[in-house]
Amino acid sequence: MKQKILHIDMDAFFARVEKVDRPELRGKAVVVGGQSERGVVSTACYRARQHGVHSAMPMAQARKLCPEATFLPVRGERYKEISRTIQKIMRSYTPLVEPVSLDEAYLDVTGVLHSDNSAYEIARQIKQEIKKQTRLTCSIGIGPNKMIAKLASEDCKPDGLQEIKEEEKDNFMIHLPLDAIPGIGEKTGRELERIGINSIKELREAESNFLYRELGTRGIILQKRGLGEDSTPVKANEETKSISNEETYPEDLEDRKIIKKFLFRLMEKVGRRLRDKKLEAKTVEVKVRRGDFTTLTRSYTGRRHTDVTERLWAAVVALFEEIKIDARGVRLLGVGVSNLRPAASQEELFEASDEQRKARLNELMDNLNEEYGDQTIVRGGTIIGQD
Predict the structure, then answer these.
(1) Which of 15, 60, 285, 335 is the most exposed place for a label (fewest CB within 10 A)?
(2) Structurally, how many domains does the chain consist of?
């Protein structure tokens, strides 16, 4: 049976959720993102995009381009809640679901097809069910592989449904711009232009030896993509390899005491996510971006794994002591953990009663914050402005 892959992409997800929750915003331009002058756009609705606003744009620039828009902060927990509903719908059709982000996923429906249920019909039913349960629209591309499916969904946005069959992919690819191919951004586009390649047709027809000589293995990979080839499988339940959290601040930070309090808040969030996924980490990393955008990272790998915030925090403190804070100040802070493994049993991991106590305290705080909202209960060290 021929492989059938779906790529589902929610339309302007964050902004559409806000419009569903606040009906008075319907028909208006909505931009979601960081609210400070240093914030960036996370999502802009299509009305705002008509004014040139797009994701990753500085919020200050977005306000100039579309001053009449309603600018809203990111409500992460709300978007996660909706995303869980959407993913549950997807998994009711196939177990092979690979989430890419909160609003995007690949589905392999090859194994659930039969004479009365085509990939197109499955996609149509998913669209209807998502609309029914969330009042949101999505665009779905169907293809013989992940790349074609994604290109098909991008080509039919918003609220579209498009299938590109194996025998149709050549004609579909040839009419796309060169930078539609994954891996061809501004820099690679200039490199291809330098060697006389300005279209997908020219990339497909180029001599492989010529591409290898000019671009190395990357040139061969790009040509295969231009031919519509992609052997990447849909990976359900992708293994978590790292967990991190970072924040950009409206004003540069210079006081080490204040910086440490912000670092502790980040560490608490990372620790909670670690325990929520029933994982423990062996490596801790601290990231500091100064006011002049120079970025420093420090990491430490301990002798054993843990999910206890206090132990992880001890490593963060030691790493932070290695970083000099000068007149440039600190623009961004980040904390991450990696080298993960499934959490061990308490009997295996915690030998000392003190660590057992800390583990139980962590669990209690997680449960309270989960039930009543973040920051319901915090450690004293996280309260900014107090010693």
Answers:
(1) 60
(2) 2
* Domain containing residue 258: 242-382
Give CA separation, 77 vs 17, 102, 275, 364, in Å. 12, 11, 17, 20
DSSP string, 278-301: TEEEEEEEEEEEETTS-EEEEEEE
What pTM was computed for the model?
A: 0.66
214 as an active site residue: the answer is: no
Look at residue 168 and tell me if it is in a domain: no
Would you state the structure tokens that stand for residue 318, as one six-digit string?
């030691």
Name the residue among 190, 223, 221 with its Cα closest to residue 204.
223
Q: Which of 123, 133, 229, 140 is nearest to 181 (CA)?
A: 229
Q: Are both 355 and 250 inside the same structural domain?
A: yes
What pLDDT score does 114 carry? 75
Residue 91 included in any domain: no
Closest Cα to residue 264, out of 378, 112, 113, 142? 378
Residue with tokens 């828009």: 69
Per-residue confidence (pLDDT) for residue 351, from 0 to 100 = 39
The catalytic residue among 18, 77, 104, 347 is 104
State which amino acid sits at residue 264.
F
Mean pLDDT in runs of 10 for the chain (387 residues)? 93 96 96 86 95 92 96 93 95 92 94 82 96 97 97 96 96 95 92 96 96 94 96 81 87 93 93 88 94 89 90 94 92 93 55 47 49 46 45
